[in-house]
Each structure stands twice: as C-alpha cells, then as structure tokens.
Amino acid sequence: MTTTKTNPIRTNKVWNIALWVAQAALAAMFLMAGYMKLTSGPAEMVAMGMMWAENAPAALIKFIGLAEVAGALGVILPAATRIMPDLTKLAALGLAIIMVLAAGLHIMRGELGVVPMNVVLFALAAFVIWGRTNKAPIAPRD
C-alpha cells in the first residue's frame, strides 16, 4: 500500500485561489446590488422586479445598498492590502447576515424564487469566513 503525500504549499495555494474567486464573486454581486439600491428609487426597483421595495422606506433601501457596497469592498480591500485582513472575515459575516435577513423577508412575502440566490451568496460568504479562518488566512503586513 502506497500513500501519497499532498504538498501543503500547493494545497494552501489552491485554497487561496478558491477563496479569492469566492471573494471576487461576492464583491461583484454586492457592488452591483448595492449600487443599484443607492442609485434607484423604490418605484424603479419595483419596475425591475424587486417587489419587496414597493412599501420599503427609501432610507432603508439606501442603508441596505450602503451596507452591501461596504461589505463588497470589505471582502476585497483588507485582504488585498493586508492591512487588518481580519476585516475581510467580518465583512463576509455582514454579507451573510444580510442574506439571512433577505431570505427571511422573501420567505415572508412568498417570493420563494429569490431565496436560492440568497442561499448561494450566504454559502459563499460562509466559505470565505471559514476559509480565511482555517485554510488560507492572510497575514497582516509587517
């Protein structure tokens, strides 16, 4: 019986690449969603099919948009600059919380077709939190 050893450096590199892909996907999705909420009014959002915005206060929509843009920047910038890289995990946690709340809202409104996207984005955020904690943490700059 032969055993094969995995190269820990290569394994870490694969995890790092996978995590950067997940972080980029999260950033892209939340930058787009947040920008749309920051630049569109409730009526425009309803016209785009986002029925939840119909009775939502404009200030709440803007707040959600701001939180999404901040989270998108937070999953990239601290890790990329290696300045306080643990903020990347906190940003991913914030995005995961947004997705739990969004899924709850959509379920309450009977908009079940949207929930799978909430689940996927939640899973990506959870993967980033787990991966940057356990598999490929980013060391801060010296």
From TrEMBL:
GO terms for cellular component: membrane. It is found in: Membrane. Its main location: membrane. Keywords: Membrane, Transmembrane, Transmembrane helix. It is a multi-pass membrane protein. InterPro entries: DoxX (IPR032808). The chain crosses the membrane at residues 14-36, 56-78, 90-108, 114-131. The keyword Transmembrane helix applies. This is DoxX-like protein. It comes from Primorskyibacter sedentarius.
